[in-house]
């Protein structure tokens, strides 16, 4: 069984930084892609960033490019989201995702090898 656990959310002032972490465990996930999504109140969940299994390929939502950086520790099956220059519009619950196919980002996974964490709240005050 695959488990996905996020940590690192919190309250920060605009212009500040936070780093989110996500740990995954379970069969075969060391070869899976990982990503971050977010959902603000009253809005649909949206893609934020993704990284392939080796960490060599990444992708970002346009509005976070240059401010957010996704990285991973391949050996420990950890993924990080470093968020700098935070804006109030970044306020949301952030979810970590683990899936078999990197090419499925930023959309939906093509099969059931698609796992989500419980979410961590990020609040940016103006």
Low-confidence stretches: none
- State the share of residues found in helices, binned by percent: under 10%
The overall pLDDT, averaged over residues, is 96
Which sheet architecture does the biggest sheet show?
Answer: 7 strands, mixed
- H and E string: EEEEEEEEEEE
Structural class: mainly beta
As a whole number of angstroms, the C-alpha radius of gyration is: 14 Å
- N-end to C-end Cα span: 41 Å
Strand content: over 45%
Helices, by number, come to 0
- Please provide the count of β strands: 11
Shape: globular
Structure description:
With 126 residues, this protein is an all-beta fold. It is built from no helices and 11 strands. The chain has strands at residues 3-7, 10-13, 18-25, 33-39, 46-51, 58-60, 68-73, 78-83, 92-99, 114-116, 120-125. Strands 2, 4, 5, 6, 9, 10 and 11 form a 7-stranded mixed β-sheet that branches. The chain has a 4-stranded antiparallel β-sheet with strand order 1-3-8-7, with no helix packed on it. It starts with a strand and ends with a strand. The model has no long low-confidence stretch (mean pLDDT 96).
């Amino acid at each position: 069984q695959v488990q996905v656990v996020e940590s690192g959310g919190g309250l920060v002032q605009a212009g500040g930084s936070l780093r989110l972490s996500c740990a995954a465990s379970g069969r075969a996930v060391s070869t899976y892609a990982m990503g971050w999504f977010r959902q603000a109140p009253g809005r649909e969940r949206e893609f934020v960033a993704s990284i392939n299994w080796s960490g060599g390929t990444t992708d970002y939502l346009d509005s976070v490019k240059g401010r957010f950086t996704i990285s991973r520790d391949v050996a420990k099956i950890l993924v990080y989201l470093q968020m700098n220059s935070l804006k109030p519009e970044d306020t949301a619950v952030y979810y970590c995702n683990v899936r078999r196919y990197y090419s499925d980002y930023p959309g939906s996974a093509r099969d059931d090898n698609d796992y989500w964490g419980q979410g961590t709240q990020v609040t940016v005050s103006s």
